[in-house]
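stage 2 :: seqdesign
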């Protein structure tokens, strides 16, 4: 090492006299690599515990003898590098021996595989020098329109998170482009990285053998993983145990349905963010005091579904635990499930792997950070720049997101017969566990209800009966789940007060043979007029307490009336007492339905593979008898429908959902694609926007366009009838089912769906 140091001094003196810009660059690269290596080694051999530095893992794995062997090799390598740096200081840009000498330096490093990964950026720099010109100019590629903006963002904010440095970002444009093309997906792959870049997540997965997922019916391992110490966790574990047999039965059914189909086993990191101490954990203290349980119901069911499907779970219940997980391990997980309550997504999580559990949904206009900021959609939630389908909701109210859901207990035939025989025709249970839900404004319709029915409540109290609860109400206090279920099996009516919104309780009541009566909202509640929705990343209008129950279940199981209209309310109560209903549970809220849906997402949704822009002219077209290519329409009218479908003679690009499910419609002015598709008996499918964002779709719909522009706006693609102007979408993250404008009619990519499984098209399994 003394010799190496002497050589270094000689080299520095020589450099001071003879350096040219290119030589400065080369020696700078060598010096940077040397410092980087020495720093990493310092982290290796001084760290006291696993995880002290990204390089500690290697030191911990190697034994003492192996570590000394590595040090000897490093010592040899440093001497070689110093000598090569002395040689490289004499290089000139026009020298014909540049490439050979640089290759010699690259070969010197590659002789030591133990540290080769630590020089991944160095390899990139060598590749840049090989041509004598920089290959790190920011590309202007129509397939990656966000690339220049992302590079600008990285230039100003790459130091905001240490994860960027872990992936090799050092402030240079080269490192930005490497990161944005290999870790993220915003820039095109760099051709000069083909041989020298470290393996990406995708190549690592391609090389590693896939393991087949096998259905599990034993939940003991999952129960141990969930842990203990909080009442919220105890609630979740009780729920998992109570539904264990139903999950096992559902797994056997789905296994038979899928046959011998191969299912990849995935590694899934689940961070239950809303229960962390860092988030305040407002849920746990209220579990036994009438607090909201919907989130815990959903998370318990998500964990169970992933476990039963046979995937490899890691569960995190604290931010410290999440941050403590090795950054290298993060790259192994193909799903990282988070709570929407997180305000920052750590860059080391590889955004394409993230799934966010989001009860009320995030619309694209709120998700796109720059667009939301410029156009007034910025809130305290959202703006993560994810593909909107990475957000997963409790109900299918936001087609831009993926519908995750939860499950309700399914009754067997014996239980259904018992309910039918023991229903009390004049018994009502009120949906409201907290005394605050019973405050003023409910006296009028409660008096009408009391006139016909015996009213029961389950309002929490400690010592004294809550004064908000009327004297005629028989209050049982907060009931355990099995006792509440017995109460619902006797009652004829389950009545909502208008809050909470979209909870699981109405579905449980309907599944136990109750009729759910809920208030109609006039005007509809939204972020514009209601404090509860203000600040949430959605402009959705809610017309009733439980829109899913109203739209997807409806009469006779669900009745939605104006509580302020005494005559309408009175008539509804009389009708309820006359009719008889059977217990009903939509298939998508059964254990089997949820397993089917989650299975389809895991096996088919891959946001780490960039979707190339759809170019119709690249399609394979049929040929005529003379051999010339026949140009036919891309979209053709469907029989007995106003919608267009994919032309059967056109080869459909690979997509999920498949293009056989596509139904192309035009909305009315001021109508969103959510409404347009729903009114036609379909559902909006955001994955299909890229196939209709073109002139061929406008031509198929016979839209007259004098001007066709490409813009960034969340209502596009759309057209104005009055002005005869048409607009196509330039920003894929802003493809939006929810967007609407009174000036435009929108092109809507609708699709069909399976009966009682709106998340999946008919051919999606």
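stage 2 :: out
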């Amino acid at each position: 090492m003394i010799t190496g140091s002497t050589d270094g001094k000689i080299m520095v003196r020589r450099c001071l006299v003879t350096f040219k810009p290119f030589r400065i660059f080369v020696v700078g690269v060598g010096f940077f690599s040397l410092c980087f290596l020495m720093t990493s080694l310092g982290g290796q051999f001084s760290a006291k515990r696993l995880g002290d530095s990204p390089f500690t893992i290697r030191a911990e794995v190697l034994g003492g003898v192996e570590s000394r062997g590595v040090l000897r090799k490093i010592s040899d390598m440093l001497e070689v590098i110093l000598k090569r740096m002395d040689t490289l200081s004499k290089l000139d840009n026009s020298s014909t021996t540049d490439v050979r000498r640089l290759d010699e330096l690259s070969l010197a490093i590659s002789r030591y595989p133990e540290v080769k990964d630590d020089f991944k950026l160095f390899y990139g720099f060598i590749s840049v020098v090989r041509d004598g010109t920089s290959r790190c100019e920011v590309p202007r590629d129509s397939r990656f329109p966000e690339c220049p903006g992302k590079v600008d963002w990285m230039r100003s904010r790459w130091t905001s998170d240490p994860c960027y440095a872990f992936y090799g970002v050092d402030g240079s444009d080269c490192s930005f482009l490497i990161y944005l093309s290999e870790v993220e997906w915003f820039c095109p792959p760099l051709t000069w990285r083909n041989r020298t870049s470290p393996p990406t997540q995708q190549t690592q997965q391609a090389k590693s053998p896939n393991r087949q997922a096998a259905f599990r019916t034993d939940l003991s391992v999952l129960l141990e993983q969930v842990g203990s110490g909080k009442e919220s966790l105890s609630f979740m574990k009780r729920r998992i145990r109570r539904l264990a047999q139903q999950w096992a039965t559902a797994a056997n059914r789905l296994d038979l349905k899928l046959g011998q189909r191969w299912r990849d086993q995935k590694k899934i990191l689940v961070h239950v963010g809303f229960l962390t101490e860092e988030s305040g954990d407002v849920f746990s203290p209220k579990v036994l005091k009438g607090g909201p349980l919907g989130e815990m119901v959903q998370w318990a069911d998500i964990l169970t579904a992933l476990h039963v499907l046979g995937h490899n779970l890691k569960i995190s219940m604290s931010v410290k635990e999440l941050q403590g997980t090795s950054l290298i391990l993060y790259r192994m997980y193909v799903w990282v499930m988070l709570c929407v309550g997180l305000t920052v997504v750590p860059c080391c999580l590889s955004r394409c792997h993230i799934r966010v559990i989001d009860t009320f949904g995030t619309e694209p206009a709120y998700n796109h950070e720059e667009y939301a900021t410029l156009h007034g959609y910025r809130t305290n939630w959202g703006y993560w720049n994810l593909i909107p389908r990475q957000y997963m909701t409790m109900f299918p109210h936001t087609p831009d997101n993926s519908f995750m859901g939860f499950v309700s207990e399914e009754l067997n035939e014996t239980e259904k017969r018992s309910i039918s025989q023991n229903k009390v025709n004049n018994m009502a249970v009120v949906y409201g566990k907290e005394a605050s839900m019973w405050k003023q404004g409910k006296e009028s319709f409660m008096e009408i209800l009391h006139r016909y029915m015996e009213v029961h409540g389950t309002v929490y109290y400690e010592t004294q009966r809550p004064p908000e609860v009327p004297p005629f109400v028989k209050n049982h206090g907060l009931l355990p789940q099995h006792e509440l279920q017995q109460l619902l099996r006797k009652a004829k009516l389950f009545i909502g007060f208008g809050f909470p919104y979209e909870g699981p309780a109405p579905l449980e009541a309907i599944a136990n043979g109750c009729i759910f009566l809920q208030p109609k909202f006039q005007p509809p509640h939204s972020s514009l007029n209601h404090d509860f929705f203000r600040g949430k990343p959605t402009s959705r209008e809610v017309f009733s307490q439980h829109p899913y129950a109203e739209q997807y279940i409806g009469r006779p199981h669900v009745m939605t009336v104006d509580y302020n209209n005494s005559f309408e309310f009175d008539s509804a109560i009389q009708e309820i007492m006359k009719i008889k209903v059977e217990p009903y549970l939509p298939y998508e809220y059964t254990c089997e339905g949820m397993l089917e849906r989650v299975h389809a997402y895991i096996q088919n949704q891959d946001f780490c593979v960039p979707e190339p822009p759809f170019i119709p002219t690249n399609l394979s077209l049929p040929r005529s008898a003379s051999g010339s290519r026949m140009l036919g329409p891309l979209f053709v009218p469907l029989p007995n429908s106003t919608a267009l479908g994919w032309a059967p003679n056109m080869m459909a690009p690979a997509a999920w959902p498949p293009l056989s499910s596509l139904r192309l419609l035009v909305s009315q002015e001021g109508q969103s694609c959510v409404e347009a598709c729903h009114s036609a008996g379909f559902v909006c499918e955001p994955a299909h926007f890229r196939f209709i964002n073109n002139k061929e779709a406008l031509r198929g719909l016979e839209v007259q366009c004098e001007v066709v522009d490409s813009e960034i706006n969340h209502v596009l693609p759309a057209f104005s009838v009055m002005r005869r102007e048409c607009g196509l979408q330039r920003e894929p993250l802003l493809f939006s089912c929810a967007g609407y404008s009174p000036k435009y009619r929108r092109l809507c990519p609708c699709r069909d769906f399976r009966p009682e499984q709106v998340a999946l098209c008919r051919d999606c399994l």
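stage 3 :: structure notes
- The two ends are 64 Å apart (CA to CA).
- Confidence is low (pLDDT under 50) at residues 1-68, 87-99, 114-133, 195-207.
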